[in-house]
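#structure-requests
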Amino acid sequence: MESQEKVLEFLKLNGIPFSYAEHKRVETMADCAALGLPAPHCKNLFLCNRAGTQYYLLLIRADKPFVTREVSRTLGVSRLSFGKDDALLRLLHAHPGCVSPMGLLFPEAREVRLLCDEDLLQLPAIAFHPLMDTASLWMDTQVFLHNFLPLTGHSLTVLPIASHAEECEHADF
């Protein structure tokens, strides 16, 4: 069974309400916004520490830059970088461009620490890929936090992520 099918089966078996739509392949956050879904996609960044021994999944509003030093300093870890593709596949069952918190349902994902932009939690609903970039699913943010996450065994570390224009010149995307 493919990862996307496992995600949908997991959500249905656990009675988690969600909506789903297939669409053309999307490659950027602008492509996701152009889909016109009733909930915005968030950036999902698979990160690791300098040594490659700690893994993180950062959920951040699409309109905010990812500033490596800001997030690293907040967490108190060596400079973060993007995790390697083989670790992404092994831990979250995803390929680059398809990173999603839906991958947290797999037992291997227990090694991944979930981080979230505090402003993302203010949205009524959020959208994610179901581990494929040709489909999207969306759910109420509270359902994601209180129904989905507890079933994965993950807790959420909430971070303040700046959206200031002066930070953008130092942003990593």
